[in-house]
Amino acid sequence: MTLTLDSPGPQPTGELAPRVAPVLFPQSSGRDGLERLEAVWALPKRFAFVTEVNNTHLGVLYIATGFLFFLGAGVLSLLMRIQLAYPGLAFLDAGTYNQFFTMHGTVMMFLFAVPIVEAFGVLLLPALLGTRDMPFPRLSALGYWCYALGGTLVFASLFFNIAPDGGWFMYPPLTGPKYSPGINTDVWVLGLGFVEIAAVAAAVELVVGILKTRAPGMTLGRMPILAWYMLVTAGMIMIGMPAVIAADILLELERAFGMPFYDATKGGDPLLWQHLFWLFGHPEVYIIFLPAAGMVSMMLPTFARAKLVGYTWLALAAISIGFLSFGLWVHHMYATGLPVLSLAFFSAASSAIAIPMGIQVFAWIATLWDGKPVLRVPLLFILGFLFIFTVGGLTGVMVAAVPYDWQVHDTYFVVAHFHYVLIGGMVFPVFAALYYWTPLVTGRMLSERLGRWAFWLMFVGFNAAFFPMHITGLRGMPRRVYTFPDDVGWNWLNLISSVFSFVFAAGVLVFLIDFIRHRRSGPEAGYNPWDAPSLEWLSHGADYGFRSIMPIRSRYPVWEQEGLKEDEIGGRGFLPDAPTREREALVTGPITGEPEQIIRLPGPGWTAFLAAAATAIALAAGTLKITAIALAAGAVAAGAYLYWLWSMDRLAPRGLADAGRGVALPLYTNGSRSVGWWGMVVLLISDAAVVASFAFAYLFLWTARPGSWPPDGSQIPGFLAPVLLSAAVIAAFILFETADRMNQRERRRDTTLCLGASAVLAIGAAVAGWFWLRGLGIDPTRHSYGAAVWTLVGTMGLHLVMGAGMALWCTVRLHLGMINSWRCLTLRICLLWWRFTAPVTVLVLLMIAGFPHVIS
Amino acid sequence: MSSLELDDGELDDEVEPHSRTGTLRRLLDPAFGHFVWAVHFLAVYVGAAVACVLGLGAAGEGTRTTFLAVLVALTVVATAVVVGHAVWRHRQYRDLPDQRFRMVLTIGNSGIATVGIVWQLFPILLVPVCA
């Protein structure tokens, strides 16, 4: 329901907050409104740019950083190609080569591919969705700075000879404490930690941003197709990333505390790592590919001069890939000796995904067929993508067949295959996107002539460098060898690959030169230089995005909504002003795109940067075992996060604010309509996936060694203690629920009592759980069973302690007048935590206590 | 038509017939078929793996046939649920032009999910139990 200025409509119940009277901010679509808009969205000057949190600004930094990592990892690959150009060269020694190929893969996958596609989302989505910004800019800033600072530290490890050297997927036991005693592996875990923070932050921002901050009238069916792709990608990050987070935690627990998850001599299993890694690692391929496919789907209509054929089918193909890609992970493990049933099962799943992939390719071809294509540089890269990616797909079908995979496993055939898939499926679309969207950011066009040079050098260089690797692989050359004998028929093939890898690099260099040149001498782009149909071109490079937020009623608004530009510039859309004198965005319904609320967004501030920098330093110092610095930086980070949390759920005026166009909207919501509520839901889904991964580890370790369970000589858990623990946890949860009800009735004393009792019960349950495991004689270092049980129960114990902390946090805010019956979002978001923690803890206890009884 | 002409009808045009359901469930509803696919995938794979660990491979022919019959039954039920859901949504949406996108999205996802569900049964039936 849309509220109008004449009828304010229903309000949240409760008393007015002190010092706040009902207000109705007037707006102006004239010069004064524009000045206010410019003032609140202005970028900070000079070094203070690190305090800026605007997603559009961060998106540019994000892409630039990702591109630098691409160049760095590319240089490593060229150095490796020099070493492999001729047999027996001593340009790089074996140890250095190990570090180089590990860092090449790790940096390309984790510091370039994943971040840069997220970066395009962060940069483009606010404009594509027709909004000023997405809801959690500080979270984006935290993610970006963690990634940039942490990534730089990890890359720098190369210069100190402590770079990871166990391959980009870091299989134990090679990476376990026995065979990799140095800190190289810890550096890899550290680097991935930063990427995980950045990815989950981006996922929360993208999911909630796409669902809650679209232009009014932009229904799900009118979203730009990239938004569908990014929504699916963010959903996949939410579910997939936790598996590798869990795998990392287990690896570090084994390395640092001797908990033997992957140590076969103590009941562990190295295959557990492979399952968890590829449970993330295969969807990862699609996490990289889907945004690239989304960008291709955005650019194609522009150059085909026709609407996208099969918009709905592309959206459902993206959704289907998002799901089906989670059923393919075992096809990376065909050579590990798994049962035939597993191999056949995942081979079938691998071929099922061909259906949605096929839908996409046919939709793209049909779009080109339907229109009158204009062959500009971005389209050239898109055609290159279609060709190279299809070849990669064909060899993919070959390696999806188990017997063929056994033949070429760990050879250069596989190296050729995944470079065709990743460079074709992601790097070429990214270059198309760079050529296409650069004018949006810099206001100038890149050179068409140099662009064609860059394309052909890259296209020819790529194919001539990587196609011979198929043959090298079929002739038996294994991957990850630093040199080879000269009498096995690999010499010429390797020399060709090496020479043309430099041709590919020359193409990248031409792009770089063009990019540097265009900032001064590139032709002015003007408004909508490609005559594109989507909203980002309506924004004119201003920090605030749009002069006013336009109602949308088409998938191709710039092509189909007459007078859109004039109305937008004339301030005749929503929010032509900054009515609260702060940065704002419209919150809209996730399905209908109906305006629901005006949110005030944070402006520049040091919190996110400081939190990220301190986190990066603390984790890096911890890895390097410099305890004093780690503790000091950790304390600064904790302080920054607490300050950040404290500053949220701000005092908001009780009345409705003028959103423009005769519509009045609230400035605050305290329930499931608020963006904070949605953010917490997304985070909890990720959290659930981490707990599920630990539960999988427990069950997998049993299937690997079925027999007496517990296998370590400890007692079989009884039921009395888990029942009592569960009762305490459920009681703590009910008390938290009751606290919310008491708060609604403004019964402050009862609210405090409930919160306090909830905290005491939660802490009590966590401590009792610890004694319970100790009493059963379960030792986390003796056997993988103990390690798995302690990890699962410990994780839920941490959840209880966090829940208790939230209860105390709410109590303090309640007594400072920062929570009341109306301003209660903090309380309700903490309540969501309990709605997750209580049932999951009970389930975990049931599993730990019940499973040994069931199988015995 | 000017870009400014937008009435309440246009803003509200994706309010479904079952709009009393929560927003999160309504958002996920078009992907219903894939959730069933995921549950079926896990049930069939984990079921087979656990049964083999517990000694199905060494069990008699009758036990193995019964186990396969259970998996087939599970697949039939899963397929029926997905198809039934798609038919239900089709009946709800077919007369509502505004809901066409949602209808095609739901039915298309259900179609792909159904193929996925049936397809996953083949390896189970073709490969000898617990090989």
Automatic annotation (TrEMBL), chain A:
Annotated catalysed reactions: 4 Fe(II)-[cytochrome c] + O2 + 8 H(+)(in) = 4 Fe(III)-[cytochrome c] + 2 H2O + 4 H(+)(out)
Pfam family membership, one: COX1
Pathway annotation: Energy metabolism; oxidative phosphorylation
Subcellular location(s) of the protein: Cell membrane
GO BP annotations, alphabetical order: electron transport coupled proton transport; oxidative phosphorylation; respiratory electron transport chain
Gene3D superfamilies: Cytochrome c oxidase, subunit III, four-helix bundle, Cytochrome c oxidase-like, subunit I domain
Any Gene Ontology CC annotation: plasma membrane
PROSITE patterns xrefs: COX1 (PS50855), COX1_CUB (PS00077), COX3 (PS50253)
Keyword Thylakoid included in the entry's annotation: no
Signal peptide span: none
Domain Heme-copper oxidase subunit III family profile: 595-853
InterPro entries the record matches: Cyt_c_oxase-like_su1_dom, Cyt_c_oxase-like_su1_sf, Cyt_C_Oxase_1, Cyt_c_Oxase_su1_BS, Cyt_c_oxidase-like_su3, Cyt_c_oxidase_su1_bac, Cyt_c_oxidase_su3-like_sf, Cyt_c_oxidase_su3_a-hlx
Gene Ontology MF annotations: cytochrome-c oxidase activity; heme binding; metal ion binding
Keywords: Cell membrane, Copper, Electron transport, Heme, Iron, Membrane, Metal-binding, Respiratory chain, Translocase, Transmembrane, Transmembrane helix, Transport
Spans through the membrane: 60-86, 106-129, 141-163, 187-211, 223-251, 271-296, 308-331, 343-367, 379-404, 416-438, 450-471, 491-513, 605-622, 628-646, 675-699, 719-739, 751-773, 785-811, 832-855
Record carries keyword Metal-binding: yes
Membrane topology value: Multi-pass membrane protein
The enzyme's E.C. designation: 7.1.1.9
Family: Belongs to the heme-copper respiratory oxidase family.
The name this protein goes by in its record: cytochrome-c oxidase
Organism this protein belongs to: Microvirga aerophila
Lineage: Bacteria, Pseudomonadati, Pseudomonadota, Alphaproteobacteria, Hyphomicrobiales
From TrEMBL, chain B:
Keywords on record: Membrane, Transmembrane, Transmembrane helix
TM region positions: 35-60, 66-88, 100-122
Record keyword Membrane present: yes
Domain of life: Bacteria
Keyword hit for Transmembrane helix: yes
Protein name: Uncharacterized protein
Species the sequence originates in: Microvirga aerophila
